[in-house]
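Obj.: predict assembly geometry.
Materials: sequence records (below).
Method: joint structure prediction, all chains together.
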Amino acid sequence: MLAKDSPIGFFDSGVGGTSIWKEMIKLLPNENTIYFADSANAPYGKKSQKEIIALSEKNTEFLLEKGCKLIVVACNTATTNAITHLREKYSVPFVGIEPAIKPAALHTKTNSIGILATQGTLSSALFAKTSSKFASNVQVIEQVGTGLVALIEAGKKDSPMIKELLDSYLKPMKEQQIDHLILGCTHYPYLIPIINTILGNEVRIIDSGYAVSKQINNVLLKNKLLNTSNSKPIYNFFTNTTTKVLRKLLMDVDKDNQIYFSKK
Ligand code: DGL
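Observations (raw structure tokens):
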């Protein structure tokens, strides 16, 4: 039986979806959560749609066994390749994340926007559809963030290698006068400080964390599943590799919280 105090489940190919989770706990501080980082299989970005669907099913089933009332696919690659299938197969509500093309296309003044995402997201049918619907009159510079997810998974988000890769991906966009950069992968918000040093203040960085959190709130309300209890929430994080990188990325979460890390 799904209850209001059942946890919200999150999964990602790894640690990146915690950027979404952090946004969500600000908006919905009463909710219990279970997060699964499939780091042993990261990155998903270069996998086939068939593989991404199979992994997303496994992740969903792990979260359902733990009694989750809603599942957040905290990964653009898994959302764009697998969410339609997941919604057909399972009766639990799903919330996914897609690159925020629409606000960038609406607000651009230079008529040029950039998107950094995985190969799997950029080549998906869902991305092509959203892009042609909202950005057909705008120059969209697409760039695959090859290597970034693997470095973040290895705990190297501040390394010189990351800076070098970002320089090579973003400088050409700057030359094309982008005024918005869409982060189309949930790992990338952890790179915002470095991205800012490369692009400067004139380029607005857009990620979907807040929009997804609002959508989670709406879906919970609609299904009468919003947790109204005042007891302290419990946050459980599972990974199929070491818990070290997760712990480090979540160091800034308030120490008063009940936060647990386990190996699956
Ligand atoms: N966080 C995933 C995303 O949002 C990373 C994909 C990957 O593992 O390549 O797309």
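Conclusions so far: The chain has a mean pLDDT of 96.
To do: check interface contacts against the pulldown list.
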